[in-house]
Structure formats: structure tokens, C-alpha cells
Amino acid sequence: MAEAEFDYDLFTIGGGSGGVRASRISASHGAKVAIAEEYRMGGTCVIRGCVPKKMLVYASMFAEELGHAAHKGWTLGEKSFDWPTLRDFVNSDVDRLEGLYDGTLGNAGVEVYSERAVITGPNSVRLASGKEITAKKILVATGGWPMLPEFDGNEHCITSNEIFHVEEFPQRLMVLGGGYIAVEFAGIFNALGGDVTLVNRTDTILRTYDSDIVDRLPVVMKARGMDLQLGTVVDSVAKNDDGSFTVTLTNGVTKQVDRILVATGRKPNSEGLGLETAGVELGKAGEILVDAYSKTSCDSIYAVGDVTNRVQLTPVAIREGHAFADTVFGNNPRAVDHSCIPSAVFSQPSIASVGLTEAEARKEHGDIAVYTSDFRPMKNIFSDRMERGLYKMVCHGETGQVLGLHMIGPESAEIIQAAAVAIKAKLTKADFDATTAIHPSMAEELVLLK
Q: How many domains does the chain have?
């Protein structure tokens, strides 16, 4: 029960994955909980991020499979692609998921406010409607927001927030950025038949991933018809009379495009929340600074997820939210281990990684051993393109403990999840070698690395 002087034990600002999990678990521990979300319940991942994007990935991969049909013995009739059909189906499923989030909170007894909330003090918030609310604890879980670089005409660009809702398919799409969001959308619209240009300010994309793995991807992207403009940025964008855009790059290249998608990074969504009224400290990027238990510089205010800029991944936000609830309301203090977190890029082909890259391992441990398998996946035999997969295992030189695993190839994310358990458990190369392979499969390469 809430203490008499407070309306709630917990008031959560932000209805994304982290905020919803924290609210639901806190309520299960007996806390009186309310949550405020100004847009749509589900947050970035469900509404405008990984879930609808992965659905677009699946749709675009189907286009690739259609190209292999003849080699598989299939004779197909006339084929065409209709963007509004795909767009509307994806958005209808987002609506379904949003309803599930609302239902989950309601079943847990969490009161939902569908409006913006700002902090007015260590134990108080104000809703957009003007209602003042007090709470023993406040949790900020407002996520991140796309950054828009400065250049003439940047108002003509869209971000990942808007790309899911464009009326017409962008036959000529320019994507700005070299991170996973940019690379994934470039692959999606290329596979769906678009003319895609990827622009990145450095010569390297996906710079946090192992270099041997990443080096494979630009070659494949070019072979699939994408124009990679690396080591350059946009100088200006001008709108043409027909609604298209002329983009001038700093390297002198000029392109005519239908849409410019900015995916140059995301920043913590901490502006205008009233954090200063409670003395909550922020970092240089606007991130809310927290301790191992997600507590801010104000003892009554906590923060989880992308707004803390620790690890910008939905499963991490969920774990942080759950740990917060257990710590504050479940009498079970626990911190989230942010080491050895698996991640994936749903590029085409996909990339997955867990643990240390080779460069990181050499810097941290010195003596290491590296094992690889360079192969052509069986499913790629049906393609006319000679795309190969690469699996790479980085081990401690003395103990053989697996420090990192990295791969590029079909279904990499599905394969690495189970392997991540083994690496988190600190198993060795010998443990992998002692495991019988599943043949024929791509995953068997993990126990056959040389």
C-alpha cells in the first residue's frame, strides 16, 4: 500500500519495454503503481523500432527468396510488390502489440495516464492535463530519440520514427549513417526493389563490431546494388518541384532521391522532463547518470533503459526495469550485468556478436587464439551471388576460454543466442569441440572452427 502522504508508491514516466516491465513487476510486489506515456504504449521497440523493422526485414528477405525460386524448381507468374499493403499490415500488428501492453498493465493493476508527465520535485510530477501527482519513487524510462545532423535542408529528412508510415515506396532512398539502424534499412529497401545510397561520415560501418566480420558486408552490399558513399557527409538538401530532393555531398557527388532517411544515432530522451527540479544529474550526452541499481543523484528517482545510455538495447532495458522493481519493492537488491551482451544487425546477410572483438581481446588479455570458418552457406547455393559466411571465435591463449564470438551469414542472430549462453558461462574452445555437430547446418561450424 502507498504511504499516506503519497498518491503512489511508484510513478513511471515512459511506457516502453523497460518502464512497462518495471511497473508490472513493482505492482506484483504489492506497490501501488501508475505510468504515464505521452505517445503510444510499447515504446521505441514495439512502436517504431525493432519489432516493425524486423517485420520489414522478413518481407524483404522474401523478395530475395523469390529470386531463387527457379533454381528450386518453382515456376512463378507475374510478381509485383505493393508497399501500402506491407506498411499497413506491419502497422496493424503494432496496434495489436500496443493493445497487449495496455492489457498487461491493466491486469497487473497499474494505472495508466495517456499523457505527458514532467517531474516537479523529488516526489512529484505534473501531467499535461495539469494534474499534480505525488509518488514515493519516480522511475524515468523515456528511451532515446533520433539525432538530426545540421546541414542546409535537414528539415526535408525523415528518421526511423517516420519511415514506417511513408505514403509511397521510396524508389530512390538515401540513408545517412553507418550504424545498425542505417545498415538494416538500407538492406530492407534495397531488397524490396529500391535504389539505395548509404552515406557515412567515416570509411567504416558498424564500427563496434569485429573488423573481419564487418569488412565482408560492404562488398556484399555493393554486389546487391547499393551505392556506398563513405568518408563523406551531406552538404545540403534541396527540394525539387516534383517533390524529389537533390542531395549534395561534401565529396562533390550529387544525387536525386525521393527520401532521405537519417539514422546517424540516437540521444537520451531527457530534455524537458524537469529533472533539474529534483537535482538529477545528467552526462555530456544528456544521459541520466545512475548507479548500479539504476538510482540517480536524487534518492527517490531512478532511471532505466536508453535514457541512461548504458546499453541501448530493448532486452537490457527490460532487465534493468525488472532489477529495479526487485531492488526497490521486492526486497531483493540486484544489479544488471552489462558484460557479454549478445547483439545482432539484421543486415542482409545478418551479423551477430557476443563478447570481445579480436582487437578488444588483444588489448585486454594480450595472449589470445583466434579460430575461424569461412564457408558458403548451403542456402546460398541457390543464389547466383557467391556470398560466403564467416564465423570467428576469440579465445584466451592460455585457458582456452571463449572471449568472443562473431559471425556474418544467414540467421546469425538465431544461431548466436544459444552460443551466447555458453560464452556467458565461460566455456572453452574445448567444450565447443567436444559437442557433436548438427549436420548439415550453418551452426555446426561453431564446433568445427580451426
A: 3
The predicted-structure confidence for 356-388, as pLDDT tens digits, reads as follows 999 999 999 999 999 999 999 998 888 888 899
The domain of 304 spans 8-146+267-329
275 and 259 both lie in a single domain: no
Selecting among 29, 322, 338, 439, the annotated active-site residue is 439
Q: Full-prediction pTM beyond 0.90?
A: yes
From residue 330, alpha-carbon distances to 29, 148, 405 in Å are 6, 40, 35
Residue 19 shares a structural domain with residue 84: yes
Q: Which three cell numbers stand for residue 415?
A: 544461431
Burial of 171: CB neighbours in 10 Å, binned 0-12, 13-18, 19+? middle
Say which CATH number the domain at 399 has. 3.30.390.30
- Does 365 participate in catalysis according to the annotation? no
Dist. CA 86–CA 81, nearest whole Å: 9
Question: pLDDT tens across 179-225, in order?
Answer: 999 999 999 999 999 999 999 999 999 999 999 999 999 999 999 99
